[in-house]
Amino acid sequence: MIMGLPLHPLVVHFAVVLVPLAFVALLAVAAVKRWRERYAHLALVLTVAAALFAVIARFSGGQLASMAGGVPSGHAFWGNLLMYAALATAALALLWFFMIRKEKDAPANTVLGWLSVAAAGVAMVMTMLAGHTGAESVWGTLNTAANNGEATATEAPAATADAPASSADAPSAAAGAAVSLTMDEVASHNTAESCYAVVEGTVYDLTDWIAKHPGGAGAIEKLCGTDATEAFGGVHGGNEKAEHALEQFAVGTLAK
User: Fold this and answer.
1) In this predicted model, what pLDDT tens digit does every residue of 138-196 receive, in sequence order?
2) Which of these, 76, 86, 91, 179, is most buried using a 10 Å CB contact count?
3) DSSP β-ladder status, 250-254 and 202-205
4) What's the burial of 61, exposed, middle or buried (CB within 10 Å: 0-12/13-18/19+)?
5) Using an 8 Å Cβ cutoff, are 50 and 123 in contact?
């Protein structure tokens, strides 16, 4: 955590920027000999830095996943491949520049240089795929929740017009929020069939959200029956859209 924020969303931006820059730099010094002589060290620094931040992003992502109760499998898959591709690129680039200093015009150096470029290209593709799946897991979750909330609000008047329900038969979300539950009561709703969780003193029924969660059902199931304040804050803390989407699932408050 840095200043209350998870490390992963911060360092991942360095990898997203440095990996493509390393690819461009390696391509330039491999293609133009005079640039190789002047800018080889800059390309090497960018490549090693890209690999370093890819590794940090990978392991900080694992920590964030443990806080959030899971990680989308696609994002984890591409994130792992990105780390390996970035490390392979750095290893090839280091070997290439060592060989250049030893014997500038050796034919093997040309092959090694273009292998470094190819590895950097693969790493850049992995960066795009990891970034896409990561963004999809976050914004897809929020958009789906927001759309569900809009649909509920749109359908509610029609339902009450056809068959008005009394507050005793079908309490509204506002009425439900007045219900007070103990932590023991929340803990008893710890399955996918009945999933309650607490976030900042409010109790939410996440049962219907489990199957719809873009990040995978497991991420929500791990929160069932628990105080999920830290897990929710670690992923969506300070995000008003996420907090608004969560409100539709409120069923009560936590008894003190």
Assistant:
1) 655 545 445 554 444 444 444 444 434 333 333 344 444 468 899 999 999 999 899 99
2) 86
3) antiparallel
4) buried
5) yes
Residue 87 contacts residue 53 (beta carbons within 8 Å): no
Question: Residue type at 40?
Answer: A
CA angle centred on 106, ends 105 and 112, rounded to 5°: 110
Is 239:138 a contact under the CB 8 Å cutoff?
no
Write out pLDDT tens, residues 109-149: 889 999 999 999 999 999 998 888 777 766 555 454 455 54
Let me know: does 116 contact 26? Beta carbons within 8 Å.
yes
Beta bridge partners of 195: 190
Residue that is written with structure tokens 């090497």 in the block: 44
Query: Whose structure tokens read 């079908």?
Result: 170
